[in-house]
Write a structure and sequence with these properties.
By secondary structure, this protein is mostly beta strands. It contains one helix and seven strands. The strands form two sheets. Strands 3-4-5-6 form a four-stranded antiparallel β-sheet, with no helix packed on it. Bound molecules: zinc ion (ZN).
Length: 87
């Protein structure tokens, strides 16, 4: 018996996460545990992609690379992103 559904089931929930302005989400650095808005990250754009670093410990918290065909986003340096409930 099949006990699961496919990832399309997540569409509604993920819409609630990614629809708001992500810069207002609270991010927790996986390195030092500091929390703050994504807008508070130190962002560097000199490399091939964009890198966001923790303003406290300088750990790379997120990376974005865009090509003509796709965008990659890594949040491996974050423990979490927290989005407040929308009205
Ligand atoms: Zn940190």
């Amino acid at each position: 018996m099949n006990d699961h559904v496919d990832g399309n089931m997540l569409a509604g929930a993920l819409w609630q996460v990614f629809r708001p302005d992500i810069t207002t989400a609270e991010a927790r650095c996986a390195g030092c545990g500091m929390t703050g808005p994504v807008a508070g990250l130190h962002v560097y754009t000199a490399a091939a992609g964009t890198v966001g670093r923790c303003p406290n410990c300088q750990q790379v918290t997120l990376q974005m690379v865009q090509s003509t065909h796709a965008m990659w986003l890594s949040t491996a340096g974050l423990s979490y992103l927290r989005f407040p409930n929308q009205g």
